[in-house]
Design brief:
- The chain is an alpha/beta fold.
- It is built from 8 helices and 7 strands; from the N terminus they run βαβαβαβαβαβαααβ.
- It has a 7-stranded parallel beta sheet with strand order 3-2-1-4-5-6-7, with helices on both faces.
- Helix 1 links the parallel strand 1 (36-40) and strand 2 (60-65).
- Helix 1 (45-56) packs across helix 8.
- It is globular, with a radius of gyration of 18 Å.
Length: 275
């Protein structure tokens, strides 16, 4: 794992900076070598960053997304196994799990990552949009968990991480769908973490803040605009990077994190004000 130094690095408020220089520190063995990991929504952005980090830590990584061309390109870049899967298609989840386990072996690490729902006027969403957001943000991850937990229980080891949003803790203006549904999955994770801790299975959630991805660029109109806003609003004075978020996720997936479960970890440069 490449650790990032704390604040105080040269140029912390330099408007051209997205991330601090990453000084190389002694590596920490996370115990991920040979572990089979599945990361959904991993053709780009945060999901891709997490998959890349796990692969670099020695895990056998499977990645999925709905677009064949993108997921195959991403897999080729990081040495992962690609699978085409749409998280909204709940009936296809068993086939995805079966294919990964046939090709790589039993899944020991599951990272659930889905695209965020669109923003908009809070009173203009249709019933279909409400139902689709609930299916994508709550039901789809739980479906995956139900499929992998029996095997994890048998082996006495499992790591499940959900990539959520700080909206689950502090509502974000104009993102009603996230504000409404993400807390539901967080509650489910807390309940499951309590019931599965004795089986050697941990469930944790990561709350990304404003990470330099295509989504943040879309929400702000451009990455440059997002950086400008970040300098003013985020205590760290910048956007986060997918690599920084991935480092946190990899630790939660590791053997070293065996006593951490039911946690919701903010990776947001100090932006969220809620306790």
């Amino acid at each position: 794992m490449r650790l990032i130094p704390r604040m105080g690095y040269p140029g912390a408020r330099d408007p051209t900076l997205i991330a601090p220089r990453a000084d190389t520190l002694p590596a920490m063995d996370l115990g991920l070598t040979g572990k089979v990991a599945l990361v959904t929504g991993a053709s780009q952005g945060i999901g891709f960053g997490i998959a890349k980090e796990l692969a670099e830590e020695g895990a056998q990584v499977a990645i999925s997304s709905r677009t064949r061309e993108k997921i195959e390109a991403a897999a080729s870049e990081i040495g992962a196994r690609p699978y085409v899967h749409d998280t909204l298609d709940l009936d296809a989840a068993p086939d995805l799990i079966a294919a990964v386990e046939r090709d790589l072996g039993p899944i020991e690490i599951l990272v659930t990552n889905t695209g965020g729902p669109a923003g908009g006027d809070p009173l203009e969403f249709t019933r279909e949009q409400w139902e689709a957001a609930h299916r994508e943000l709550v039901v789809a991850p739980i479906e995956m968990i139900e499929l992998v937990v029996p095997g994890m229980r048998e082996r006495g080891f499992g790591r499940i991480v959900s990539v959520s949003s700080s909206a689950a803790r502090e509502p974000i203006p104009a993102l009603l769908m996230s504000n409404a549904h993400r807390p539901g999955l967080l509650g489910a994770f807390k309940t499951l973490a309590h019931s599965l801790a004795g089986d050697g299975i941990t469930l944790n959630t990561i709350f990304p803040g404003r990470i330099a991805t295509d989504r943040i660029s879309h929400l702000h109109g451009s990455i440059e605009k997002a950086q400008e806003v970040a300098r003013e609003e985020i205590p760290a004075g910048r956007l986060g990077t997918a690599e920084e978020l991935a480092a946190a996720a990899a630790f939660l997936c590791s053997e070293r994190a065996s006593y951490i479960t039911g946690v919701a970890l903010l990776v947001d440069g100090g932006l969220t004000k809620g306790l």
